[in-house]
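Problem: given the chain below (254 residues), write out its structure.
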Amino acid sequence: MQTSPSIALVTGGSRGLGKSTALHLARHGHGVILTYRSKQAEAAEVVAQIEAMGQKAVALALNVSDSGSFSGFATQVRDALLAQWSRTTFNVLINNAGTGTHASLIDTSEAQFDELVNVHFKGVFFLTQKLLPVMADGGRIVNLSSGLTRFALPGYAAYASMKGAVEVMTRYMAKELGARGIAVNTVAPGAIATDFGSGAVRDTPQLNAFVASQTALGRVGEADDIGAMVASLVSTDNRWINAQRIEVSGGMFV
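Solution.
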């Protein structure tokens, strides 16, 4: 009997770490549902790249800061699964979508704080909740965190606090979903050269050089460093890893 292909859902899959993760998952044989907030053309290009590998893919619009939209989004996921794969469930959830704010404690506004809560904590909590009925038993969930929960850099107090909450939430998810055979882990990237945070690490030579000098492997991280690791983590080779925080930073600030 032919085994049904694994299907992964990656939030924020039109660019950066999400795009890399979606492409690496496809290379590992997963079908992919990826979400985008506004970059529809970029999301369509990722779908095209995945299809060129011989895998099926779908791009769906999603604003992860709008928890009121999640029930409708779950319905869209069900419809996509039936239309593209003749399935009613998916297997892997990558909670990747995010935004960054760089501001000191004194300068952080309540609006900035609330946006970070909605995107990085409330969004992850309630999106996962709404998608669990559409997720197959024995699946995998990966929540993206940050190296900033281990080391502190001025200007990231609010952002890092949300990611700290995600790490605690991950352990509770692992505990509560274990009965369904669903493993849940956190991946915490170090500084990565993408357009995240207005591309500061990628485009600012002084910052890039500083990060490289503070990293044991001597360079700044790339999106593919993270995407490849996430795809490996959700493979059956790593089925016994659960409730863990895994930092992928090249040894930053060790």
